Amino acid sequence: MFNVQRSKLGNKRLLWQLPFLVLLIVGTILIIRGQRNIPYQKCSGTIFGTVYNITYQYDQDLQQELVAKMQEVDSALSMFNESSIVSRINRNEQVKPNDMFLNVFQQAQAISEATDGAFDITVAPLVNIWGFGFKSGQDPSQHAIDSLMQFIGYKKVTYDGKHVVKRDPRIMLDCSAIAKGYGTDMVAQVLDDKGVKNYLIEIGGEIVTRGVSEKRLPWKIGVTKPSDDLMQTGGELQTVLNVTDKAMATSGNYRNFYYKGGKRYAHTIDPKTGRPVQHNILSATVLTDHCARADAFATAFMVMGLERAKQVLNENPDLMAYLIYDDHGQNKVWYSPSLKDKITR
């Protein structure tokens, strides 16, 4: 008798629950249909001396707000903007940094510390002199390198709570190896604040994604295969990665190598020696949650080489890396074990 009553009570509850279940299912279907009917907007242009492309699903055009945010970053960090905060600091003007500049400066200093100086925002003068040397076919003299090394080094610049303090007035800050990533993060923040669930932001090759593409598929990004064929214009892909809900940055001189001992080396300058690195990493792609961090570590890995990069990756489990290196003329690949499931090709 007790079991019969219990069964009847269960049936009554089920009958009461069915309408709610139906409403829940119908509501879910309507929400999904509504989301699919929301258009994907696209905008593109130039910023930070490079090109940006943004795709996002939203029922309004947000280009004006997105551009305004990028211009805000530009006014703090761009070397191409003479009135930017970083440009004024480089001219030794007494300027109070804003929150954006300080955020990037402090991130840069922390990553410099974590990479033992492989990442360094004071290295630009060395990059410039070696870049000229590569183009002219003549290496800079040791005297020229030694002269520049006097004002290279992230520990020679600090923040005292009001101003950036440079140990030598000739020190130049160049945030280009982290600013594009930071700018990408800032655009993502605007979209997140608007409740946008699906988007892809790309600024000069630095990327942040959320959700799915217009085809309702995960966002997939190709990693270009390094090549020393100067006539190659398309760029063959080494691999394709699923980067949904991640930030991604790649550093590498794809068509700019020098040869030594039968090996190819990318033209990457070591801030500690003032000379091109003697490591054979040709391309470093980093995935993590924030693009500024991915941007800076990708640069650092190009400097420190494969074995040291692996150590730093072990010390920073939020980072995943896909590294292409030269092995006696052949491209070889090493990638983080945690990246395996994201490799689609």
Task: Give the helix/strand layout.
Layout: H1 2-37, E1 40-47, E2 50-57, H2 63-77, H3 85-90, H4 99-114, H5 124-136, H6 142-149, E3 157-159, E4 164-166, H7 176-193, E5 199-203, E6 206-210, E7 220-224, E8 237-242, E9 247-251, E10 257-260, E11 263-266, E12 281-288, H8 291-304, H9 306-315, E13 320-327, E14 330-335
Antiparallel strand pairs: 1-2, 2-5, 3-4, 5-6, 6-9, 7-8, 9-12, 10-11, 12-13, 13-14
Structural description of this entry:
The protein has 345 residues and is α+β, with helices and mostly antiparallel strands. Helices cover 39% and strands 23% of the residues. It has helices at 2-37, 63-77, 85-90, 99-114, 124-136, 142-149, 176-193, 291-304, 306-315; strands spanning 40-47, 50-57, 157-159, 164-166, 199-203, 206-210, 220-224, 237-242, 247-251, 257-260, 263-266, 281-288, 320-327, 330-335. Strands 1-2-5-6-9-12-13-14 form an 8-stranded antiparallel β-sheet. A two-stranded antiparallel sheet has the order 3-4. Strands 7-8 form a two-stranded antiparallel sheet. Helix 7 (176-193) runs antiparallel to helix 8 (291-304). The longest helix is centred in the N-terminal third of the chain and has 36 residues, at 2-37. 37% of the residues are buried. The model is unreliable at 26-33 (pLDDT under 50).
